[in-house]
Amino acid sequence: MTLPEACSFFHDLTQIPATALSGSGQQALFCAVFRFHPVQNYLNPETLEYFLDHLSHGQIVHLTDPLGIHFFFTKARQVPLALGPFCTELLTVSDCRLLFRRLGSLGLPINDYLAYRSPFPVIEDRRVLHLTRCLLKNLGVTCDDWEVRDLDCQNSRAQDTEPQNIYRPYARLVEERYAAEQRLMENISRGNRFAAIANWRDLHNYVAYTRNPNNIGYTIQNARISAAITRTVIRIAAMKAGIPAVLNDKISGESAAIIRNASTIEEINKEHERLIGEYCQIIYDHRTKGCSGLILSAVYHLERHYSQHITIAGLARELDVSPNYLTSRFRAETGLTPTAYLAKTRMKQAAWRLANTRLSIHQVSEQVGILDSNYFVKLFKKAYGETPSRYREKMGL
Question: 354 Cβ partners below 8 Å, 6+ apart?
Fold first, then answer.
């Protein structure tokens, strides 16, 4: 693949411009195209030329300019490459005011600034770094130990003559994040729910701070990306704890659907904690009760889908076993048949609704998957020794 072909492919894949800056003419054109404000003084042709001349083999520089615009600079086949501009967050007008206040007087209308940013793709910088490495690899650029540096110019003021060089060792950040993820994985694999949720909160806050210390423009898109990363970490921990791959994939897939349909960041964060709690409960049951992967999967299905019409034949078909074998194994490992376990789960859910909501008996019956109210009353009385109405009265409703 030639260098122009690689740059074109990178742009098609990411919508991020990839520019070979092989001479002063191309560098000057690059500056003319992308320099929007004097505060972006790194886009002075002489400054850029000096900067590119000092890029070495195996070095990737992630530059964040004072206006929050991102570039990756590196070299391939001795030719400097600029991958950018791109953004890592969407900004509101309020976010822009905070940014401008930090930079000082720019004499720049917010609407003009937003119009300047609008064509640039919004993508996580870590993903762009990964794609940059892939691009270099396909160009035949090999390096045993890439040096990745963050050049953060966001604290530079408009009157500065040179951008402030703030180098942050990328390897150190990766090591710290991996250590935090490792603690999360260890507690999930033990089924330790409360410690795992605390680990996730620490990891979430740590990543939010290091990636965006001023918390400007954190978006629901960022939260969804974070959720995908968290699910991967949890799946690995669950796999190590012995959770079957099919069940692992099912739980993760259902959580992904919830994240896709979430309308706020708060909903996504709550789903993180719910998912961690669910995995930890399954892993705890697996470790303490000795349930096989088959029965763990069956229990998960019954507890998750109790409100739906469930037959033993349908459940066995989904788990790829015969109904007789499923019933036999289920009774041996839980002491109940799948039908009895389903009824127990439904009655437990019904009892909670009776004690905590003002739904009618008929509505509660329907919500737990029993369409015949009379049959529901019979089952509830068998489980709790009294009718649903009497149970609700005792609960004070």
Answer: 364, 388, 391, 392, 395, 397
Q: Does residue 84 sit in helix, strand or coil?
A: strand
* DSSP state string for 190-225: TT-HHHHHHHHHHHHHHHHHHH-TT--S--HHHHHH
Cβ atoms within 10 Å of 132's Cβ, excluding its own: 24
Give the whole-angstrom CA distance, residue 349 versus residue 380. Answer: 11
Interval 234-247 mean pLDDT:
86
Q: Is 71 helix (H, G, I), strand (E, B) or coil?
A: strand
The pLDDT score that the predictor gives to residue 164 is 39
Q: What is the mean pLDDT of the chain?
A: 83
Q: With CA atoms as reference, report the closest residue to 122 among 69, 51, 190, 46.
A: 69
What pLDDT shows up at residue 156? Answer: 45
* Rg of the chain on CA atoms, in Å: 28
User: Quick check: helix, strand or coil at residue 16?
Assistant: coil
Nearest Cα neighbor of 133 from 170, 178, 87 is: 170
Determine if the pTM surpasses 0.70.
no
Phi, psi of 222 (to 5 degrees): -60, -40
pLDDT in tens, 188-219: 888 888 788 877 876 765 555 444 444 444 56
Alpha-helical runs (H) found in 212-264: 220-240, 245-261
Q: For residue 41, what is the DSSP state?
A: G
Q: Say what the pLDDT of residue 205 is.
A: 58
Parallel, antiparallel, or unpaired: how do β-strands 147-152 and 167-169 relate?
Answer: antiparallel
User: Three-state DSSP class for 66?
Assistant: coil
Distance CA(369)–CA(337), nearest Å, equals: 18
Query: In which band, very low, low, confident or very high, does the pLDDT at 162 lie, cut at 50, 70 and 90?
Result: very low
Q: Tokens 């791109």 correspond to what residue?
A: 86
Which residue(s) pair with 348 in the sheet?
none
Alpha helix ranges (H) inside the chain: 3-14, 24-34, 45-53, 93-103, 110-117, 125-138, 170-189, 193-211, 220-240, 245-261, 265-289, 293-304, 312-319, 323-334, 338-356, 361-367, 373-384, 388-394
β partners of residue 169: 149
